[in-house]
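Z., the sequence and structure:
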Amino acid sequence: MYPLIENRTNRLPYVAEKRNGSGVVTAGSNVKCKIYNRTNAKWWEGTEWGAETELTASHFVAGSWYYDLAVPNGDADDEIDWVFYDETDGTVVASEQGQVFDANALLLHVLTAILSDETSFEGASIAAILADVTGLEGAAMRGTDGAYTGTPPTTTAIATAVWKVLTSGLTTAGSIGKLLVDRIDATVSSRSSHTVANIWAYATRTLTAWLGGAKSCTLQVRDGDGDAVGGCPVQVVNSGGQVLYDGPTNFGTGNLVLSFDEADDYVVTLGNLAGYTFSNPYNMDVGAAAAQVFTFVCAKTAAPPPPVDPSLCRVYLDVRYLGGPNAGQAVGEGEATLSVVELLERPAGATVVYGEKGATGSSDAEGRAFVDIVRETVVRLRLTRPALSEAAADETKVEFYDELTVPNAATYDCGG
């Protein structure tokens, strides 16, 4: 009878050629199996005992399969039957029986089987050997004579002893202790107290270490009214096509202070930023002055006219190319669509809802698409747009989905 160990994963093997009924070996496929607990009259369902279940045995190498049975705790002394069978015609190809042992009982079972024909071993009686094995679980262990036989220290005591080692004794080069002594030479609280927000809110950030330029250049992004455009993405590329900076302007001032060299031509690309359109690319000619200011002007994006029905909100989106030479520029007419694909929730008391599933708006010549939807409706939107830099007949389109609660407003920019 096959021995199984309680509270362990036991591998049940089947070593043979599985045939599909026509005599052809199908060594790369799986066979099926079922496992039955005769003691509690239940079948193995994959994680516990229950109803009769067909299981899949895994293919290991040519002609060999197995199933890993995780025998639950508490199944000691149970008798288990299992059978492997052809998945094509149901022919039984192997069957076996097993008995569940707990770990200690299995060890005694094996020792008894091995030594049952002998009365002594190495001068000691078999009965004495088995008695010693039986007492191992609760016995105190020790090594050779003279070894430590007292109570070993607890993990808490060991950890406490380590943390109480004096720093004056941590002198071994290359050790973790010496590294801490050398590097943690001041309290952490004595270092800078600035937060990330403090740094990004600072009016004049000068990043010079990596650019290596000699001229301090303040880049200002302004709208048509002269107001600062904070958080505007800025990319600066030199004449060799190397990206020197790629990040936002200051969220409060709309400025960015960088260092560049005089003897180079720079191209600045702004956006994308919801609510603004940009005349990319912008050229930046750095002169001889030590400090210079460059102002880049963009236009505020005007909202579309509201729908005639005052119960509706015109939800719109200005769609831009994702990359390539036209990155940041508006897509062409009909190249993108904005659609309502699912109505999730109607506004309270509504009896008629416009803009339900199927409502679609295509981009116009400026890249703007919109749909009219009842205010305070919850919908799922889909944006379909060109995948790369420009639309083409054979270009893959990409889709984006988002859930939107339509505001109680005449218009709404869902790209914001």
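The mean pLDDT is 78. Residues 2 and 98 are 4 Å apart (CA to CA).

Let me know what you think.
H.
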